[in-house]
Amino acid sequence: AHLWLGITVSVFVLSSAKMLVFFTVAAGLALIVLFFLRERFPYFFQDCAYMLRNVILAVRMLKCRKSKPFYSIVDRFLDAASRHPSKVFIHFEGRAYSYGEVDKQSNKVARALQAEVRLQEGDSVALFLANEPSFVWTWLGLAKLGCPVALLNFNIRSKSLLHCFSCCGAKVLLTCPELLDAVEEILPTLKEQGIRVFILADSCSVPDIVPLSVKISQASDEPLSPALRSNIHIRTTALYIYTSGTTGLPKAAIVTHERVWAASFLLFACGATAEDIIYVNLPLYHSAGFLIGTAGAIDRGMTVILRRKFSASQFWDDCRKYNVTVMQYIGETLRYLCNTPKKDNEKNHKVRMAIGNGVRSDVWSEFLNRFGDIKVRELYAATEGNIGFINYTSKIGAVGRRNILQQLIFPHTLIKFDVEKEEPVRNSDGLCIKAARGETGLLVGKVTQRSPFIGYAGNKQQTEKKRLRDVLKKGDLYFNTGDLLRFDEENFVYFQDRVGDTFRWKGENVATSEVADILSMAHCVLEANVYGVKVEGHEGRIGMAAITLKEGEDFDCSDTYKQVSNHLPAYARPRFIRIQPCLEMTGTFKMKKVKLVEEGFNPAHIEDQLYFLDTDKRTYVPLTEEIYRAISSREIKL
């Protein structure tokens, strides 16, 4: 027995020694491989983690697509309200609203509207509301009825507002007291068209606008039957979100339930969890604030800190007060924060991640230096687009990163683009030419079953304009993003510029032809050529217009100011006017803009008369070199 025990122990020791050697060698090789991957492919593990999350999301999307009845973001909300009814969903101006409260309030809104309007599944309703919790629960109530909802920009007025309302096919408009004046202005036209207007208030002095708050408070908060939205599926229209493009007026991008899911998944793709608290200060009528921020929070089961509007001075105090861990931004947001006076407690917060787009590299670096190690998840996307990118590595300056999985599922490419002619460059076969690695090109996304382009409501012409055919082979179809990008050797994506008749200022897209139409309403203006120019230290481009005057007329500063201030939101008003004897045209009678954009607004280099929109004086004033220096030194805020 002792002999056998000795032999057994000896064999075990020898085996253990061999195993130890084997595991030591294996561990050494693994470390060498890991070291090699880290040195040769520094983003390998981040790529893997991001792609794994996307595989999980693809599986979830497939389940949603196949589920019967269809499982929408509303069902996700109902599940969250069932799991944790007392968890805070929205914090707003000192008041907390739980998932359960918002659920019940949305039921009351839905029942009140059912009683008043007899809304049916598929009936479109337009929301013209400010950033407040009622926006969220009103949308939820309508979604429970299976109604597509148009999210109207609360900055627009008159012609633009009427246009945005009309193109979504809604028969009902819901508004709030602070926007009553804007609705009253278009009320006669709405009345002619048989549109019913409701206001979220106890009373209203304006005839034909029905107060709804009392009816909501009296309505039952019992759950609504899912049968009310039984015909909803993944390709059904869920929302209309407005975007400016090459038209004179905003376009209603059709947002299907599939796109709602895709946008809401972005928080998970960036690593957000149910324990995170997100700070939403962007407008809820935008994709970023509503789909990524609010719908994304619903998907994760998060708490939303909602603000009426952005405040740089109160931002970090809010973050500390509510233990915010995730913030949203546009480029201007981070710049405003960096422009605030420095304080000792700037890094005393729990924000770990910032999600958004449009930040300049220098502002990005300054933001991190000032406010700590925050993971900035810069992204590139469009409301109606079929291709987008996320910079999940936080590499400063990049708007995203390409990976193999994305290229397989969402085929896309950069093609050579002629900026002067404003059209893609084609070869002798009539096909587009791919841009070389490192070369700036027009981003186009292939239209497939997995990556469709739905288009714009009531605007076939503009939908067709965004479709690009015969790109890489005859008969293929791509979505034209209208954006010039660049891919570098490491697969990072860099935004270069916009093409066409749109520029971006204060986080908003501005359609140049809409601004030109308004300028032409001034009695002195004959023609207007509107474009965006860069201003040192600012993201995007600010509005400028080259105009010609009617014969015998001088530039009327006050009348021109009156037209732009009455009919355009602040971000769209041209801050600079250039008086020209005539406007240069292309061979196809398009106004030339490239040279004007390059020349900018420096009075020392331009012989034409220049004017500046002085917001304090509420008029246009001659643009002097002194004013120019004050703008450049940021003494004058734009």
From TrEMBL:
Ranges for domain AMP-dependent synthetase/ligase: 79-400
EC identifiers of the protein: 6.2.1.3
Enzyme class: ligase
Listed GO biological process terms: long-chain fatty acid import into cell
Residue stretches making up the AMP-binding enzyme C-terminal domain: 515-590
Pfam families, per the entry: AMP-binding, AMP-binding_C
Protein's name according to its UniProt entry: long-chain-fatty-acid--CoA ligase
Topology class, membrane: Multi-pass membrane protein
PANTHER family reported for this sequence: LONG-CHAIN FATTY ACID TRANSPORT PROTEIN, LONG-CHAIN FATTY ACID TRANSPORT PROTEIN 2
Subcellular location as annotated: Cell membrane
Reaction(s) this enzyme catalyzes, per UniProt: a long-chain fatty acid + ATP + CoA = a long-chain fatty acyl-CoA + AMP + diphosphate; a very long-chain fatty acid + ATP + CoA = a very long-chain fatty acyl-CoA + AMP + diphosphate; tetracosanoate + ATP + CoA = tetracosanoyl-CoA + AMP + diphosphate
Swiss-Prot/TrEMBL keywords: Cell membrane, Fatty acid metabolism, Ligase, Lipid metabolism, Lipid transport, Membrane, Nucleotide-binding, Transmembrane, Transmembrane helix, Transport
Listed transmembrane segments: 20-37
Record bears the keyword Magnesium: no
Keyword Transmembrane helix assigned: yes
Gene3D superfamilies membership: 3.30.300.30, N-terminal domain of ligase-like
Gene source species: Salarias fasciatus
